[in-house]
Specification:
Elements (H helix, E strand, L loop, with lengths): L1 E3 L5 E3 L3 H12 L2 H4 L1 H9 L3 H25 L6 H9 L1 H31 L7 H17 L1 H32 L15 H4 L3 H14 L4 H7 L9 H26 L11 H7 L6 H33 L19 H20 L4 H27 L5 H19 L4 H34 L1
Antiparallel strand pairs: 1-2
Length: 447
């Protein structure tokens, strides 16, 4: 069955399991394939606890979004609900903070792709790779929605297959059937070996665990295409159970295969884990899969950030220019895409100026700005929904975990820089809101 969109195009309705698969493809990306190395370096084998806590927080955010979507389906999802809960300033702030977070996420994805590529070409600067992947991403967008759908479908399968391949090969390595390396298994024997950096290590790693679940809000926007809106909650539960299981199993295997001090922020933990176990083919095959997966999420972010800008323009929260569509076969919002491209150029400049720590800076700032929106969703859900019983515990517990993740970035010097970058963007949005409120009030009086 199909339905018509505002632009006259037709979209197919989704069944709950189809939305689960789409959500899995949207979420798994460089936030997990690369940023998890940062989490492991900070907290060691206890990284599995970080991801369990982050999965609970993520599930709660989607749980309330799904309830809102069931009661009042809106294409703008969290952006629209924020506006309904507290007025125009809330919708404006939510939309622009999300736009900023997606821009930074796209920058971190370009950097991650460049880091993966340096595995084969270590002497080429990051910015050259970032430029090349940016151009390729724009070309994919210019092919239109059909080309994008085909590419994303293929890449989505590759993401899942890459992790499953790692799990299978890691189990073979642990069994000693091929490498006879059973003595190399690093099982934590004491509490201190499980928490090598104590509670503060676990605390500071939370932000990267949350970042690995980034994309849940996109799934909520896609849930409007469900044939039965009541299936939104079930779809999210199944998807998060699948992703959490995959994350915990693969990370658990990684920390068993090599010592914690072997992991490097500039290399995927899965490549590191098997590079030490006499599988010379695997790092190259898996690195290629990581590049495909990272490119997929980068292109998806390119679409998402452009779409949010168009939504803001249609709501009057961005210049009307950004809602204009192009003509011909490629019916794109070219002005909005143009601004996104400018943001990509800024990210490339950052990768040129700060080649060593750029990924950690961008990842921290992007993750923070993303969960600022998540916290706001949890905050205003009580205003739009009648929350009872255990849902109160879900809401307050998740808000506490989000605050822990945010405050944990202050414990690490590199993460601290990302915190101040995210805070600066929020302050800028706040100042713009203060300036715009007078105009909004004046327009409301005139109308």
């Amino acid at each position: 069955m199909k339905k018509s969109t505002d632009s006259g195009q037709e979209e197919s309705y989704l069944k709950w399991w189809q939305l689960s698969l789409l959500g899995t493809g949207c979420i798994i990306g460089t936030g997990f394939f690369l940023a998890s190395s940062l989490a492991i370096s900070m907290t060691g084998p206890a990284v599995v606890i970080s991801f369990i806590l982050a999965s609970f927080g993520t599930y709660s955010v989607y749980h309330f979004l799904a309830k809102l979507m069931t009661d009042d389906p809106q294409k703008g999802s969290f952006h629209t609900y924020a506006r309904k809960a507290y007025g125009r300033w809330a919708g404006f702030s939510s939309g622009w903070v999300y736009w900023g977070s997606e821009m930074l996420i796209m920058g971190s994805q370009m950097t991650a792709l460049s880091i993966f590529s340096k595995f084969w070409f270590p002497d080429i600067p990051l910015w050259i790779f970032a430029t090349g992947y940016s151009v390729l991403g724009i070309l994919v967008v210019l092919t239109g929605s059909k080309g994008f759908d085909r590419i994303e479908n293929i890449f989505g399968v590759v993401k899942i297959a890459a992790i499953l391949m790692f799990i299978v090969v890691a189990c073979i390595a642990l069994s000693g059937m091929v490498t006879k390396n059973a003595e190399a298994v690093h099982v934590p024997q004491t509490l201190s070996s499980f928490f090598p950096n104590g509670f503060t290590g676990l605390w500071s790693s939370l932000i990267y665990a949350f970042y690995a679940f980034g994309g849940i809000e996109i799934m909520s926007m896609m849930s409007i295409r469900l044939k039965d809106k009541k299936d939104a909650s079930k779809s999210g539960r199944v998807m998060l159970l699948l992703i959490t299981s995959i994350y915990i199993i693969s990370l658990g295997l990684a920390v068993l295969l090599v010592s914690v001090d072997s992991f490097d922020a500039n290399e995927s933990p899965f490549v590191t884990a098997l590079d030490k176990h006499q599988f010379p083919f695997f790092p190259h095959v898996f690195n290629g899969a990581l590049i495909i997966a990272g490119f997929s999420t980068m292109v998806a972010s390119l679409f998402a950030v452009t779409s949010m800008l168009v939504t803001l323009a249609k709501d009057g929260d961005a210049p009307a220019l950004f809602s204009k569509e192009g003509k011909g076969k490629v019916n794109l919002h070219l002005p909005a895409l143009g601004l996104t491209v400018i943001g990509m150029i800024v990210s490339i400049i950052f990768s040129l100026l700060l080649p060593e720590k750029i990924f950690e800076y961008i990842t921290t700032a992007a993750g923070l700005m993303l969960i600022y929106n998540w916290f706001f969703i949890l905050f205003y859900s009580n205003r739009l929904l009648e929350i009872k019983g255990f849902d109160h515990m879900k809401r307050f517990g998740s808000m506490a975990f989000v605050l822990l993740a945010v405050s944990g970035t202050l414990l690490e010097k590199a993460s601290r820089i990302g915190f101040f970058v995210s805070l600066a963007f929020v302050v800028v949005v706040g100042l713009v809101v203060l300036k715009m409120r007078k105009k909004w009030q004046q327009r409301s009086y005139e109308s």
